[in-house]
Every structure is written in structure tokens, then in C-alpha cells.
Write a structure and sequence with these properties.
Distance between the termini: 46 Å
Shape: globular
Structural class: alpha/beta
Mean pLDDT: 93
Order of helices and strands: EHHHEHEHEEHEHHEEEEEHEE
Bound molecules: N,N,N-trimethyl-histidine
Largest sheet: 8 strands, mixed
């Protein structure tokens, strides 16, 4: 008989957040909807397709870097720690770590409950020796994870350069939360996308098959599915570009026409070409990220990159 092995902690980050944040975001100037709302089931499936695109170098590059970093990483972190993965989604990356590091426990943290339960159940099945926990939490709003106050050494794993979704001061704030979670001497293993020629970035966020466009537009489809609205996603288009001053890719949804859209009984007026800002994806140099991490009390202990310096995986230690 397989024992039930995934303990779930559910903070219920939910669609009430979607309603509240969409209404506030559409009323704001400039208009904005946070990228965490991309990841409903269809959105997560589209994101998984992005990861396979020829133009989207990030996922495969990070996998390669991790693979090559494993022996050194194992020496620096050691076995029997508690591995806490942020945005655990459907990740294959953590399997590399589990197999090589043999942590004493695993906590998957994700805002999307379906994906979280599916991925942690699979890990529990594939690694019978591993204690598996699932925490359904919007970690951008804080990192209170009850089954983490064990005295074990802790390492947070935050792959995929999702830290890039946060503006620098929010990123410092999140890393500060991570620091308090792992405690002095604890680790953060983080994927950080690097600054690079703009053509490579532009292609990665404007892929030929239009999967990134569909991913961006899915946000409007989700609003249609979950809120009371007459919004027609077809009247919007995907727009992504690199902003060199801010050092980030920006994604927007632009109205093709002048229109009034009703959402939950409120009217929002768009001119042709008016947009909703849906995502920032910050790119850093290794030194820029070291300075950012230092503001949160972390020191770079090791940095691994690919030969073309597209992407980095960084081991940071909390030394407040
Ligand atoms: C998951 C935030 C790292 O910024 O590249 C992919 C999301 N957006 N294509 C990124 C994304 C458009 C991705 N992160």
C-alpha cells in the first residue's frame, strides 16, 4: 500500500485576488496586471511550451548549467538539508538536485494548487526516501511556510529567473524573506538571466510560433473565464520589447481599437494602442545581481554560467 506522503499547507491564494487586482490594475495609470496571474492551467501549459521554443534559451541553458554545477554544489551545500522550491510548477530542474544532493526534505511552494499537487505527488512517488511537503502560497506576499521551522539547514531553490519579474526593490524584499526563512548560513540557489545583445532577447519574447503572444493574451482569456466581463481578447495584441534604461523586457497587451470594456460592473476606456503592462523580466550582470543580493544579506558563494554567458545559476549564502 503506498502511504499518503504529501503534506499540504494551503493559504488559498485565489480568484478573489484576481478580481481585486484586475479592477485596481485597470483603474491605475499606467494600467498593470501582475504576471503571477499568467499561470492558470492553460497559462502554465503555454509557459511549458515557451520553455521548449528554439528562441527561448533560458530553460535548456539553466538545465545544462545546473547539471554541470552539481558536483561543486553538492560540496558546498551538503546532504540532509531542507530543499524549498519557489514556483515549483512542473519543474524538471529540481530532480537533478534531489538525485545529487539527497536533501532530507522537500517543500514545493506555488500559487497554482493543481500544478503544485500534481508535481509534488510525482516527486513523492519517484523518490520514496524523500519527505515531501506542498505549500500553496503567493510568496510575493510573504513566505510563511509552517513546516519550515525545523532546525535543518535550508536551501531555497528559485530557478527560471523568475526573480526577474520583480523590480529591484521588490526582489530585495523577496530575498530578505528568503533569508529569514533559511536563517544565517542558509542558502538560496537562484537562476538569473543575464544582460545580452538585444536581438537574442527580442527573439525570446517574440517567438516565431507566437506562443509567447498566446501566453500573454491568455491573461485576457482568463479574465473572461473567471470574471464578469465583455472583454474580447481578439481586440488586443502582444507587445514585448527590451527597455535598456530599466534593464528589462517589458510585455504589454495593446488594444487594437478604441473601446470601452466592462469588468465586474466597472467601465474602462481604451484608445487604439493603449496598453496593459503585464510583465517585467529584469536582466542583470553578475555584479549587478551581487549588489542586489547583498542588500538582502546574501553573498555570492558560487556563480555558474554557460559558455555564451546567456544565463547564470548563483549560490548565495545568507550572512545578515
Ligand atoms: C518565468 C518570469 C522567467 O521572464 O522569461 C516567458 C516568463 N514571459 N516568456 C521570463 C516569460 C514571457 C519568464 N519567467
Amino acid at each position: 500500500m503506498p502511504k499518503k506522503r504529501v503534506a499540504l499547507y494551503d493559504a488559498h491564494p485565489g480568484s478573489t485576488d484576481l478580481r481585486r487586482e484586475v479592477l485596481a490594475g485597470l483603474a491605475a495609470s499606467p494600467r498593470v496586471i501582475a504576471p503571477k496571474f499568467f499561470y492558470d492551467e492553460p497559462g502554465s501549459a503555454l509557459f511549458n511550451r515557451i520553455c521548449e521554443l528554439p528562441e527561448y534559451y533560458q530553460t535548456r541553458t539553466e538545465m545544462d548549467i545546473l547539471q554541470r554545477a552539481l558536483p561543486e554544489l553538492a560540496g558546498l551545500v551538503g546532504a540532509e538539508s531542507l530543499l524549498i522550491e519557489l514556483g515549483s510548477g512542473a519543474s524538471r530542474k529540481v530532480r537533478l538536485l534531489l538525485e545529487r544532493l539527497r536533501p532530507g526534505g522537500y517543500v514545493g511552494v506555488d500559487i497554482s494548487k493543481e500544478f503544485l499537487l500534481a508535481s509534488t505527488a510525482e516527486l513523492a512517488r519517484d523518490y520514496p526516501w524523500l519527505e515531501v511537503h506542498a505549500a500553496c502560497v503567493d510568496f510575493s506576499a510573504g513566505l510563511d511556510i509552517p513546516h519550515c521551522d525545523l532546525s535543518m539547514h535550508k536551501m531555497v531553490f528559485y530557478p527560471g529567473s523568475s526573480i526577474g519579474n520583480f523590480c529591484p526593490d521588490e526582489a530585495v524584499h523577496l530575498m530578505g524573506d528568503v533569508g529569514r526563512l533559511v536563517g544565517a548560513g542558509g542558502h538560496l540557489l537562484i537562476g538569473v538571466d543575464l544582460k545580452k545583445p538585444v536581438g537574442i532577447l527580442h527573439a525570446a519574447y517574440n517567438d516565431a510560433q507566437g506562443v509567447t503572444a498566446d501566453f500573454n493574451l491568455n491573461l485576457l482569456h482568463r479574465i473572461r473565464r473567471e470574471l464578469d466581463t465583455d472583454l474580447d481578447p481578439e481586440t488586443f495584441e502582444h507587445y514585448a520589447f527590451y527597455n535598456p534604461t530599466a534593464g528589462r523586457i517589458e510585455m504589454h497587451l495593446l488594444s487594437r481599437i478604441a473601446q470601452v470594456i466592462w469588468v465586474e460592473g466597472e467601465a474602462f476606456r481604451f484608445g487604439a494602442g493603449d496598453g496593459i503592462h503585464t510583465e517585467n523580466s529584469y536582466k542583470y550582470s553578475v555584479d549587478e545581481f551581487a549588489a542586489l543580493a547583498a542588500h538582502a544579506g546574501f553573498r555570492q558563494q558560487a556563480v555558474w554560467q554557460d559558455a555564451d554567458a546567456l544565463f547564470s545559476v548563483q549560490l548565495l549564502q545568507y550572512r545578515p
